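Researcher: Let's do a round of design. I'm pasting the structure tokens now; please hold your answer until I've finished.
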């Protein structure tokens, strides 16, 4: 798993330590580690004290790769901070998206209600049409009876 760490030169047995600060959960999701954890590493001796590094750590807590975090941090600056993305602007965007989603849900519910009402009205109109056809037939039958009585 990839971690953001800080090199600490005051290690044990000549090994520098890597103070783990955050862990990558997925491509764009990182979590700050709640408590400090230090991993000893002879490889970290090649880096200056206090330097931020990206370190790949296996499930058995062995260091697979260490590299300076400068390029990674600069990519973050380029991708997010040069466009004005701040935690508060991202939170506002998240809230706006949630309001939009809620608004769409309400509109969808209103459309569903309107559809049900229209369907009920259509059924009422069809029933009225059937009644009118039936009454028309009855009137035509009465008229034909009256005509036949008048002819007799």
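Researcher: That's everything. Go ahead.
Model: Designed sequence:
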């Amino acid at each position: 798993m990839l971690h953001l760490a800080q090199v600490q030169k005051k290690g044990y047995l000549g090994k520098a330590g890597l103070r783990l600060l955050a862990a990558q959960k997925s491509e764009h999701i990182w979590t700050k580690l709640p408590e400090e954890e230090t991993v000893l590493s002879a490889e970290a001796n090649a880096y200056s004290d206090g330097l931020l590094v990206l370190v790949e750590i296996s499930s058995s807590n062995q260091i697979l790769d260490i590299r300076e975090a400068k390029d990674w941090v600069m990519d973050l600056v380029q991708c997010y901070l040069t466009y004005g993305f701040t935690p508060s602007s991202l939170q506002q965007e998240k809230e706006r998206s949630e309001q939009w989603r809620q608004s769409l849900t309400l509109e969808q519910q209103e459309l569903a209600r309107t559809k049900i009402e229209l369907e009920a009205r259509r059924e009422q109109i069809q029933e009225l049409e059937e009644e009118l056809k039936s009454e028309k037939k009855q009137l035509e039958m009465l008229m034909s009876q009256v005509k036949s009585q008048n002819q007799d």
